[in-house]
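Q: Got a minute? One more chain.
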Amino acid sequence: MSQVIYNSLTGKKEKFIPLTENEVKMYLCGPTVYDFLHIGNFRGAITFNLIRNWLESNGHKVTFVYNYTDVDDKIIKRANDEGVDTSVITERFIAEFEKDFNTLGLKPHSFNPRVSEHMHDIVAMVEKIISNGHAYVVDGEVIYDTATFGEYGRLAKRNLDELEAGKRVAVDDKKKRPQDFVLWKPAKPGEPSWDSPWGKGRPGWHIECSAMVKAILGDTIDIHGGGVDLLFPHHENEIAQSEACNCTKYANFWVHNEFINFGAEKMSKSLGNVITARNFMEKYDAEILKYLFLSAHYRTQMSITDDKLLQTISALVRIYSALELAQQTVNEVNDEAVSDAGFDKKLAGFDSKIKKALNDDFNSAELISFVFEAVRTFNALGFANKKKKNATHKGASQIFLEWMKKYGDMSALFNSEPSPMLNRLDEILIEMRNIDKEKVETLVQQRNTAREQKDWTLADTIRVELETIGVELFDGHERGWKVKVNE
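A: Always. Here it is, folded:
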């Protein structure tokens, strides 16, 4: 099956054919580096990490560009509030972003350009847009003339007459019409500025990405991605200015990931319910965040609720328990591994289903479901409780570990050491369910004493009490007990 991708530009799935055979040029809008990123900002990073890895596994050489916007009003405001240069703010939060990115275990991009490094490219692009008759200059401000671009609004599926200025576009009396947007703005006191033919100033937001794409990837790229909130006006304006400059198609495919909801409301700073990725990963874990995002298709809105978190933890406990069993079996059995042909065949069947799912618009939800099916199939081999494992058990465990690593590397999941991860998930469940750990430890010790004294009635009573609290005894666990998870 050939690769198909949903194209926001056409509103339908289309067969993906790269501009150059076996090469893919891909750009994803990166962060504005003035603060820690909230978890929704990382949906694109996690999704496109999988997209890039899948395309590479299919034999494509992917050049993946993910930018840092280090020239922006929010950066300037924070720098002024703190009384420091803007570079202090941007360097700080680029470092913080990269720390979060590394915690997630995502693959480094081919390029991470900064706007400040591409001022010459930006100025040259604005000059070309003016010379091509698509922009006008008023008092040192360069403004894009949307009326000169006949296809303006095609990405957002809106007619020019119906459009209003986008939320991030300031409307001023210098514009011929509200939807016209700024390419270059004059310098203001206390702001960073650069030389240009129109005087000292700095670029508008939209031109920055267009210039970095052109400088690194060329006039036309295969895939341009970002959050659905960037579709208009940012990506709409990128198309207009890039095609006005280059006189050719800007991007063949537009790929947009949907919003993240927290509870019942869309995550947004105006609602005051933004949770940074850093705080989430410290309270829960990076593995939970990645599993949450990839267990839903990137084009579906998803809510993050306590129930969803508990479901995710339950799934990860099942997966890492299987990985722990497989790892222990390989380590314990000294005999040479013997292949289990039936199990191998089932895993090959899951391979085919995963390939079909990922070739169909990168359906990560199906990927996760088939990984879970593989875990069920491994557990169904039935040797978990056997005291003595044999060479066939070892063979099945080896192939299972290799199979899981293949998709773990692709998704940036399932790569942690199983035992520490299971302990971590257990600690998270203890906190989420408000379990009194000290009380549980006391009850477990009392039950152990009762068993030593052969007081089976008391031991059973304590076991039932532990179950009521939400705890089950688990002989293989370091503590001797663990929090129950929903099956």
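A: DSSP finds 15 helices and 15 strands in the chain.
Q: Perfect, thanks.
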